[in-house]
Amino acid sequence: MEHAVQVELLQKLMKQLDDGVNVDAGVMLKNKASAYTCPDMAKREWETFFRTHPQIIGLSGDLPEPGNFITVEDFGVPVLATRDKEGTFRAFHNACRHRGAMVTTEKRGKQAKFTCPFHGWTFGSDGALIAVPMEDHFGSIDKSCHGLIELPAVEKYGFLWVHPDPKGEIDAEALLGGLAPEFDSWGFDQMVNKDGATYAMDLNWKLAIDTFGETYHFKRLHKNTLAEGFYGDVQCYDIFERNHRMILCVKSIDDIRGTPTDNWKMSNGGFPVYYLFPNIQLNVGAAGMTMVRVYPDPKDPNRSISQVSFYFRPELLAAEPEKLMQIAHNFGRVIQGEDYAVAETTQRAAQAGLQDYVIYGRNEPALHHYHNTYRSALGLEPLEVFE
Fold first, then answer.
1. Least enclosed by CB within 10 Å: which of 17, 104, 238, 295?
2. Are residues 351 and 271 in the same domain?
3. pLDDT digits (tens, 9 = 90+) for 334-369
4. What b/e string do you get for 268-301 counting C-beta neighbours within 10 Å, with b at 16 or more?
5. Same domain, yes or no, for 34 and 64?
6. Can you say whether the dihedral through the CA atoms of 158, 245, 271, 268 is positive or negative?
């Protein structure tokens, strides 16, 4: 992020604090409560946002060296992602070309070859079929035509994108909607993965996304956790096509008042939170970044799975590993134990069917943007104004 932009955003936060105001969307909107429970809408979302849309599966740091691999199964297609011997990021359908068994069920590791546990067919990290046991018994196989099915894969600005459709296309710049230069400046490509967590919760995936969309709840829900370090009811908010950037206000902003702006940097008083359509939340701090990938349960609109990954700048992780991991896991516990825990009660209430709609306030512009963006992608009319 350019220094001038950092200064501008920090000054906006200071002015909001001084004036006792917050970001203002201008209107309130209402959304049908059934948006969180409707099986038909959930089916359309699954097909539109997950099965036929490029997916971020991690950062470059998840595949730090040739031979590293990760597997994911979050969006309906089992994926084996590798860094081949040339250092290129590749992605494949994780299914042997013989009888379709997964060639590995490990979440991550390092190996140059993948041998199917069923019959021993072996594939390289470039997906090529390199060995068929007892081929004279099995029959002749043209190995050049029976490698793992390759999926479109792009590595850019530190992100790993995969398209679930072998014929799909990935345009990173278009997907980022103008955020590419800013993301490039954060150095996401240098961050390393260090642990993570999976939260399978009884709440709709959009409801999970909603919990990241405002600071109105900080003084109430997070009064003994995040509110100790953050000012609630204050934020900067900017839209980048289908994505957005929120800047939360850290209480340390008071320490830079009256100091030369030439020395200001975002971490002095701001905490960027980015949303990438349709399901990614990025929480960027001085030491690294927490990525939250939220997925529906394709069989139940009332459940979702959040994959939380912690990334750090390697020099800082080497200096204070225990401290940074404690901060990261404490943040994860807030997400699961406070935000998601309350959202589960919202889900149970929505399932009762008595409440016609929920209300998104003027101070909750991210929720306006989330849901109108979803609706636009599904060919639906924008949300109604609440009056």
1. 238
2. yes
3. 999 999 999 999 999 999 999 999 999 999 999 999
4. bbbbbbbbbbbbbbbbbbebbbbbbbbbbbbeeb
5. no
6. positive
Cα-flanking dihedrals φ and ψ of residue 272, to 5°?
Answer: -70, 135
Q: Are 156 and 229 members of one domain?
A: no
> 353 and 256, same structural domain?
yes
Instruction: Judge whether 282 lies within some domain.
Output: yes
Neighbours of 142 (CB within 10 A): 7
Cis-peptide into 278, omega within 30 deg: yes
Same domain, 188 and 318: yes
b/e sequence 180-214, b meaning 16+ C-beta within 10 Å:
bebbeebebebbbbbebbebebbbbbbbbbbbbbb
The range of the structural domain enclosing residue 148 comes to: 55-169
pLDDT in tens, 145-176: 999 999 999 999 999 999 999 999 999 999 99
pLDDT above 90 covers a percentage of the chain that reads 100
Q: Are 157 and 174 in contact (CB under 8 A)?
A: no
The CB-side HSE value for 7 (13 A sphere, CA atoms) comes to 10
Q: Rounded to two decimals, what is the model's pTM?
A: 0.96
